[in-house]
Amino acid sequence: MQKEIIVIIGGPGTGKSTIIDGLVADGYCCYPEISRQVTLEAQKQGIEQLFLEKPLLFSEKLLEGRIKQFENAKQEPSEVVFIDRGIPDVVAYMDYIGDDYPDHFKTACEECKYSKIFLLPPWEEIYMSDGERYENFEQAKTIYSHLVETYRKYGYELIEVPKDTVSNRILYILDKI
């Protein structure tokens, strides 16, 4: 069987990390979202919101981490690896804020190709903001649109995961692979 590197995407607060946690509990190989880690590391250095204060530096760190996740996923002994957000997310967020970014961002999107992309739609009933998630729900919907546009631009077919219980969403994803 060919290695499946599967990405779960969606705007903020759509349940990505909860689904990843459920897949981990079920014994699947999963890589977590790294933006919180990047944010927390910057906060330790006195930068409260790196994405807001230095978006290009934040995005460079994310891109580097997501490329590393992709390369590591290729080496995993598991036939299926799930990742919370992918490389094109970095481009989508930079487009969302309207900032320019170097060409190597686009090159990474073209060279690191995932097997499948599962898309979680905006879901106001489960949306919550916290210390690392600064967007309101309206902004989350706009980010969702940028994600859809960006992933399609790089040739991905997006599989939308219905709003349902966590276990049913996981079953839906597993059924599609």
How would you sum up this structure, described in words?
By secondary structure, the protein is an alpha/beta fold. It is built from 8 helices and 5 strands. The chain has helices at residues 16-25, 35-44, 50-53, 55-75, 87-97, 103-111, 137-153, 166-176; strands at residues 4-10, 29-31, 80-84, 116-120, 158-160. It has a 5-stranded parallel β-sheet, sandwiched between helices. The model has no long low-confidence stretch (mean pLDDT 90).
Key traits:
single chain, 177 residues, alpha/beta, five-stranded parallel beta sheet, 5 strands, ATP binding, nucleotide-binding, ATP-binding
Briefly say what this structure is.
Helix content is 53%, strand content 13%.
Class from secondary-structure proportions? alpha/beta
User: What is the helical fraction, as a range of percent?
Assistant: 40-55%
Mean pLDDT: 90
> How large is the share of residues in beta strands?
5-15%
Radius of gyration: 15 Å
Main beta-sheet strand count, sense and barrel state: 5 strands, parallel
The first-to-last residue Cα distance is 12 Å
Give the ordered list of helices and strands.
EHEHHHEHHEHEH
**How many helices does DSSP assign?**
8
What secondary-structure arrangement, pairings included, does this model have?
Layout (H helix, E strand, L loop, with lengths): L3 E7 L5 H10 L3 E3 L3 H10 L5 H4 L1 H21 L4 E5 L2 H11 L5 H9 L4 E5 L16 H17 L4 E3 L5 H11 L1
Parallel strand pairs: 1-3, 1-4, 2-3, 4-5
